[in-house]
């Protein structure tokens, strides 16, 4: 998994509340388990397209400069609903590498961490400020620095600190999925295994 340390780019505003994973990645796009290709079109398909191949010109991700967005500022409870990892895969394939909101579905936030996407939770008032900045092409550039745990918004000259789970931060900074995190303890696991089987050799 690619490590995430700092990201500077265009932020898009998606203020809708309670966007669930069925809307983020509709069921017709769940035909495979390939996280590398084919899911970008599925991401928010019903909002982005009026018909196959017909983008809605008024939807934020279909308009410049937000067609190049790498950061998504969301409404509350984004990613609620079913456990659908494809929702994160499609978001990443479209180029969105970080999400910021006042709350996220728990499983969705966990899937984000396991796929290299920070899901940053901020107070609602700060999210509303970022939404306003992201909605204006003159102020939509932002920088998310996970190492320092700050978001810089040149549009209003401010820097905002944020809290982040230490374990998820470690995984993201090192580019570790759950298996990679476990393998950091490989030597300890081997030592335990050797001692365990010495004490109970009939289990070896």
Describe this structure in words.
This protein has 204 residues and is α/β, with parallel strands linked by helices. The chain has one domain (6-175): Aconitase, domain 4, CATH 3.20.19.10. It contains 8 helices and 9 strands. It has a 7-stranded mixed beta sheet with strand order 6-5-4-1-7-8-9. It has a two-stranded antiparallel sheet with strand order 2-3. A hairpin with a 2-residue loop joins strand 2 and strand 3 (54-55). The radius of gyration is 19 Å and the shape is globular. The model has no long low-confidence stretch (mean pLDDT 93).
Short recap of the structure:
This protein is of the alpha/beta class and about 200 residues long. The chain has helices spanning about 20-25, 45-50, 85-95, 105-115, 125-135, 165-175, 180-185, 185-200, and strands spanning about 5-15, 50, 55, 70-75, 100, 120, 140-145, 150-155, 160. The chain is about 30% helix and about 20% strand.
């Amino acid at each position: 998994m690619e490590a995430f340390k700092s990201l500077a780019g265009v932020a898009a505003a998606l203020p809708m509340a309670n966007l669930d994973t069925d809307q983020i990645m509709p069921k017709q796009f769940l035909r495979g388990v390939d996280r590398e290709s084919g899911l970008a079109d599925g991401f928010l398909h019903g909002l982005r397209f009026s018909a196959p191949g017909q983008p809605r010109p008024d939807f934020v991700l279909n308009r410049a400069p937000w067609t190049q967005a790498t950061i998504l500022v969301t409404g509350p409870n984004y990613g609620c609903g079913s456990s659908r990892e494809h929702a994160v895969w499609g978001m990443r394939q479209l180029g969105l590498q970080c999400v910021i909101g006042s709350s996220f579905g728990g499983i969705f936030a966990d899937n984000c961490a396991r796929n290299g996407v920070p899901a940053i939770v901020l107070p609602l008032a700060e999210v509303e400020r970022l939404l306003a900045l992201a909605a204006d092409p003159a102020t939509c550039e932002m920088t998310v620095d996970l190492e320092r745990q700050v978001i810089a918004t040149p549009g209003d000259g401010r820097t905002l600190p944020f809290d982040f789970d230490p374990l998820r931060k470690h995984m993201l900074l090192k580019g570790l999925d759950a298996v990679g995190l476990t393998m950091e303890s490989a030597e300890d696991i081997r030592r335990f295994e050797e001692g365990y089987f010495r004490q109970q050799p009939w289990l070896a």
